[in-house]
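Example (one chain per record):
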Amino acid sequence: MIKRLAVFVSALGLALVPLLGSAPAQAAAADPGPPPLTDGYGLTQVDTATGTDTNFVITVTTPQVAGKHHIRIILPSDYNANANAAKRYPVLYFFHGAGDDPVNQLYPAFFKTKSMITVVPDGGLRGWHANWRDQDTAAGAQNWETFHINQVIPFIDANLRTVAAKKSRAVAGVSMGGFGAFHYAQKHPELFSQTASFSGDIDLSSDSMDLRLAAVYSLTNAAGALCGNIFGNCDGPWGPTVSSDALFGTPYPVLWADWMWNEADPSRHMDRLKGKDVGISIYVGNGNGNPLEMEWWLEGASKHVKDNMDALGMPYYYMDYGNGANWAPNCNGGHNGYCWARDLEDFIPRLEKAFASAA
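Predicted structure:
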């Protein structure tokens, strides 16, 4: 049981992004710092923005999601050049894994592009990119879809020189964020022209119960019925303990009681993207063939999605780098940031070409 719970933690991406290096440094004396942004669309900026004029983090509050939330914004290095004063840019919305924070998302590929803006909004420790079924929990308001779709996107379009159109907007993410990327692309195909999953939890159906139970783990802090009875206060790494039903209702596939999980599951709804002009990319390893390494389970989930797209005759880009030996140094095919950094080195140039061809 302990080993299985450890596997679940791995599925959620907790503390598995190593230090990949810092963003390119700029001379402090020459840098004016983060640009002023105007509140709106339900977002209120609090605290002080940190970073440089092209790589900065703001903190916002919203009635839709309890607490304070970071948003990392990465602008092309020449965004503020006088010659580009009227230039507009496409945007990649990138979602982190569970247990992580936008502050930590410093993948080198983000800083190499001069042709697009990257925005990394908070997805919560276990937000799961959804408006939770139960809003009356110790976690407070949990309307993550409303936050991302109805607030963050228009806020960014209002404050930055974006091309505010489907053709110039993409959504991608790692682990839990991979689920969010596919989930949002399926629900809002009018908003995104590209979506990508990096080791994503993109099968939450009963075909991948280990991944579904990983989400339950994040909700219940794993202790389940022991919380409050033996251990006392069970607020854990994910925040206050909530019911397994708080997110999408009961997760247990008995007499179709889990219909809300099935409705949110990306794997069984790839038809929602067929013919919608949305490019689809999937990156995954195999955990070196070890079932105790969650990437092994995520490979299975990714294959389910691939098989469903094949059955529908859909185009896609699929990269299974196996044990990682030929993919990147320090990538062992597991659930780690070295593999994802290489994924992004491959994905972002392809994304730039797709944006350019749609311009």
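Caption: The radius of gyration is 20 Å.
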